[in-house]
Amino acid sequence: MIKERTCLYSKEERALLVKLESLLNAWQQRWDGETGWFVWDGFYPGYFNVTKKILFLGRDSYDIYNTYARPIPHCCYVSDFIPRYQSGCMDDGKSINRVRFHKLLLQVAYGILGKRGPLEWRNVLDAKSICENGLIFNEVSFAFMNLGKVSHESCDPCGVNADWAKIDFAVDFSTKNRNFIREEVELLAPDLIITMNLNENPLGRDYYKSVFGESIAKSKIRIDDCTIYEVTLPCAKHIPLLDCWHFFWSIF
User: Fold this and answer.
1) Burial class for 66, CB neighbours closer than 10 Å (0-12, 13-18, 19+)
2) Which residues contact 79 (CB under 8 A, 6 or more apart)?
3) Is 130 within 8 Å of 136 (Cβ atoms)?
4) What's CA 228's distance to the chain center, in Å?
5) Do 84 and 91 touch, CB atoms closer than 8 A?
6) For 42-70, what is each residue's pLDDT tens digit?
7) Nearest CA among 15, 7, 50 for reference residue 137
8) Nearest 5°: phi and psi at 215?
9) Is 153 or 198 the better-scoring residue by pLDDT?
10) From CA 71, how far away is CA 161, in angstroms rounded?
11) pTM
């Protein structure tokens, strides 16, 4: 986390940042020497103040190395997006509304967390309005992490097709002997987890079992294209996990 951005977090949130940094440092030390650019993630300011703590769990980050194009120990996906969410614009001035993945992260979080929520989709503000109206990091905040911590650097010009071979290797590497992925989820202690087609992969692998083992159970309930699970964490929280379409391809 870039130090000047930690001031946006409350004292309690900064204590969690310290624990998260310790975990990610240990995780990266295990990774060092392997192929790929290790990418940190975490949670946004205001995470402790919202009505429900949401964790979005994605697949892999895209084109991080080319974005930085310089040798740095690591980059933090969340830290990089704090100023972009504050302004409602990307670094090139493009509106956040034109970046489908982040547009939907913000809108789904707002629809669940807004003071008038939960809202029907037609009543949800557009992402740039959420950013510009003082809602971001106040009414709207969330945690975000990727299943694979390695940046997806491919020849795919749009970055929309996950590198499942790299994700699969990263998951094996991150759960062998010590399950870093589950530890990060436990630190973030969400009330709701929203994932993005993690089991819709060409390898036919059940990544939920890889990460959560016997502490995850699939519900018999299915709502449209959303599969519902329940995850039990050591704090005895029974957390609903909603597996939805990937937000780039989402039907929202």
Assistant:
1) exposed
2) 1, 2, 5, 40, 42
3) yes
4) 18
5) yes
6) 999 999 999 999 999 988 776 554 444 44
7) 50
8) -90, 10
9) 198
10) 26
11) 0.89
Spatial neighbors of 162 by CB under 8 A, at least 6 apart, are 59, 60, 152, 201
Q: Under a CB-based contact definition with an 8 Å cutoff, are residues 202 and 154 in contact?
A: no
Of 154, 124, 152, 153, the closest CA to residue 139 belongs to: 124
Structure tokens, 79: 């830290």
Give strand ranges (E) for the chain. 39-40, 42-43, 54-58, 75-76, 143-146, 192-196, 216-223, 226-232, 238-244
Q: Edge to edge, what strands does the sheet with 143-146 contain?
A: 42-43, 143-146, 54-58, 192-196, 238-244, 226-232, 216-223
Q: What is the pLDDT of residues 137-172, one digit of tens each?
A: 999 999 999 888 877 655 454 445 677 888 888 899
Q: Is 105 helix (H, G, I), strand (E, B) or coil?
A: helix
Residue 162 near residue 152 (C-beta atoms within 8 A): yes
Which of 12, 132, 17 lies closest to 78, judged by CA?
17
Residue with tokens 């302004």: 87
